[in-house]
Amino acid sequence: MTGIGKSRKTTIYDLAELSGVSASAVSAILNGNWKKRRISAKLAEKVTRIAQEQGYAVNRQASLLRSSRSKIIGMIVPKYDNRYFGSIVETFEAMARERGLFPIITCTRRDPELELEAARTMLSWQVDWLIATGATDPDKITGLCAASGVPTLNLDLPGTLAPSVISDNYMGAKELTRRILLNSEKRYGEKRPLVFVGGRGSDHNTRARLRGFRDAHHDADLALPEENMLACGYAPQKAELALHTFFAVPDRNTGGLFVNSTISLEGVVRWLTQSAYRGQDQPPMGCFDWDPFVTLLGHDIEMVRQDVPAMLAAVFEIIDAGDVQKQQREIPPIFVS
């Protein structure tokens, strides 16, 4: 494919020639109205990609002509059946309505294709902002929305092209690890390394938490075997299988568990039950997430509650100011014993 010469700005007509469609179709795609024109998602993605490759910038005056502010604000979330993401949705809705905005929210199940489809649909509704919560590829969503002149903000997982609001995952994990280690030493009378369970090593939050986990062991002068890091994914069944596999090796000298979310905790609880590690035999534990019912599991349990109200307050502070510049705000979590 031949690129447009950079001595002049790329136009819609240039994009139409490169993509092999009409200029009106290109305009509909970049303005988020491709579904109304019965344009396929595959073609819409192709045109958007070409626009990004050519450095095409939406004419701001023209984009403003699509309508005055719609007062619609969109959010995508990876899950509903999780207390953390459920709290984000409820708080977001309340704070949006306080500002006279109409919130549209959809669950994308950590599926990259669903995330882009949701973003395109929200663009067709002419949202004023799109909040990408826990998105697998937030920069791709930002690029898609930027082509239509719609600002985005990343929540929970950061991106590199738009403002991001996240928990302080490193310090939260380091402090949580320190607390579990203290409980473990009190229980066993000696220092023992912990096991990290859950999450994906490829995502920002898990990497930051693993770093805090390692550094807390280092500060305690405690060797941490590499095999103790079970970043096996968030699904409960994956956490359960990872623990069965890990403890199938005899004489594991471990002092407790660091569980990376309440989603993974479901699998951990099943493993505890099947392995008869209940009551006094339940190991010291900590979870980077919060659910009030976890206290019923027993003693020596520490939890990190991500400060959703403070996170959403930062989100709307950015939106109220209309600040689209890249920045990252880290909100300290709250500890619950």
From TrEMBL:
Matching PROSITE patterns: HTH_LACI_1 (PS00356), HTH_LACI_2 (PS50932)
Q: Which domain of life is it from?
A: Bacteria
Does the record's keyword annotation contain Transmembrane?
Answer: no
Residue span(s) of domain HTH lacI-type: 10-67
> Is Cytoplasm set as a keyword in this record?
no
Family annotation (SUPFAM superfamilies) = lambda repressor-like DNA-binding domains (SSF47413), Periplasmic binding protein-like I (SSF53822)
Q: Which Gene3D superfamilies match?
A: 3.40.50.2300, lambda repressor-like DNA-binding domains
Q: Keywords, A to Z?
A: DNA-binding, Transcription, Transcription regulation
Q: What is this protein called?
A: LacI family transcriptional regulator
